[in-house]
């Protein structure tokens, strides 16, 4: 049973590393001008990996229960205390999760900065001119006809 737990940890580690790689790509895209075109496929891949991680975590918790250990962190700590291979893989997984967490936090900040920039750009385009003298392009890309000006 410990071999199955070890295999699950290895799969979790690989999936977290794949997720971190997607976050790195996302970071580069967020810093580029082409974010709108590339982000949907990145979000789709992240969503897929999150599903895989949830299934692996459930499998790990079931394996811990079969070993008579509690689910989650407490059970993994106990399993790691009694098996050096599990301890080594658990440590690798924790480090990978921390790297992914930092990358995700960084991407969240990039998104916030980009949203702030877009808000300021939009505000600059929405000039507060009198309504009668509105010579700016409308939503259809045309200058509105002046009636009675």
Automatic annotation (TrEMBL):
List the Pfam families: FlgN
Keyword annotations: Bacterial flagellum biogenesis
Q: Which domain of life is it from?
A: Bacteria
Q: Where are the transmembrane segments?
A: none
A biological process from GO: bacterial-type flagellum assembly
Q: Can the keyword rRNA-binding be found in this entry's annotation?
A: no
> Is Transit peptide a UniProt keyword of this protein?
no
What role does it play? Required for the efficient initiation of filament assembly.
Q: Which family does it belong to?
A: Belongs to the FlgN family.
The name on file for this protein is Flagella synthesis protein FlgN
* Organism expressing this protein natively: Paraburkholderia fynbosensis
């Amino acid at each position: 049973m410990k071999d199955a737990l070890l295999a699950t940890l290895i799969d979790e580690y690989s999936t977290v590393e794949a997720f971190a790689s997607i976050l790195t790509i996302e970071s580069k895209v967020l810093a580029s001008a082409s974010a709108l075109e590339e982000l949907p496929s990145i979000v789709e891949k992240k969503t897929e990996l999150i599903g895989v991680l949830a299934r692996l975590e459930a499998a790990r918790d079931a394996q811990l229960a079969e070993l008579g250990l509690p689910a989650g962190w407490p059970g993994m700590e106990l399993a790691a205390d009694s098996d050096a291979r599990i301890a080594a893989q658990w440590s690798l997984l924790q480090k990978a999760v921390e790297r992914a967490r930092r990358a995700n936090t960084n991407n969240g900040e990039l998104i916030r900065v980009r949203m702030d920039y877009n808000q300021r750009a939009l505000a600059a385009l929405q000039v507060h001119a009198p309504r009668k003298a509105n010579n700016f392009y409308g939503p259809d890309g045309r200058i509105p006809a002046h009636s009675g000006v």
